Amino acid sequence: MKLYFISIYTFLTILANGQSGNLINKLDFTSKIQALHIKKFEWIINQQLDSLQNLFHDELHYIHSNGWKESKAEIFEDMASGKLRYDDIIIHSCEVRLIDNTAVVTGKGTFCVQMAGKPLEFKLYYTEVYVITNQCIKLISRHACKDTGK
Predict the structure, then answer these.
(1) Which residue in 146, 2, 140 sits closest to 65, CA to CA?
(2) Prediction pTM value
(3) pLDDT (tens digit, 9 = 90+) per residue, 10-52?
């Protein structure tokens, strides 16, 4: 009960100090990042390279669960050649944290892929880092590891 009153007090203090606009903007932006993060997986499955081209930062590091690191160019080469194809991505959970001009997304999901035509399924824990500017949002880093369920 005490925690409940502290939370209400904190919220009212923020409103009284004129910070409510910042809080609302942060919540709106968190929702935008979460939606974009989910949409990105649809683009990957459907190989919508133009949408991914706009989202991926030129300095992107895309690190797979086995330690394989790809650049933006390498991702597009592998998608075009069929070396790596995503058939389905099921997100079980994700969280967005905003820190200044950076959004960090952590999540868990099941990734169904084909690697050189061989079907594979991975349960992954991943982190994605997005850079936010006035003009756009860009994915600059992604790292995944196997989800051990712990």
Answers:
(1) 146
(2) 0.81
(3) 444 444 444 444 555 777 889 999 999 999 999 999 999 999 9
**Paired tokens of 115:** 């690697």
Instruction: Tell me, letter by letter, the H, E, C secondary structure of the chain.
Output: CHHHHHHHHHHHHHHHCCCHHHHHHHHHHHHHHHHHHHHHHHHHHCCCHHHHHHHEEEEEEEECCCCCEECHHHHHHHHHHCCEEEEEEEEEEEEEEEECCEEEEEEEEEEEEEECCEEEEEEEEEEEEEEECCCCEEEEEEEEEECCCC
Domains of the chain: 2-146 (3.10.450.50)
Q: How far apart are CA 132 and CA 25, in angstroms?
A: 14
Q: Is 18 left (phi over 0), alpha (psi -120 to 50) or beta?
A: left
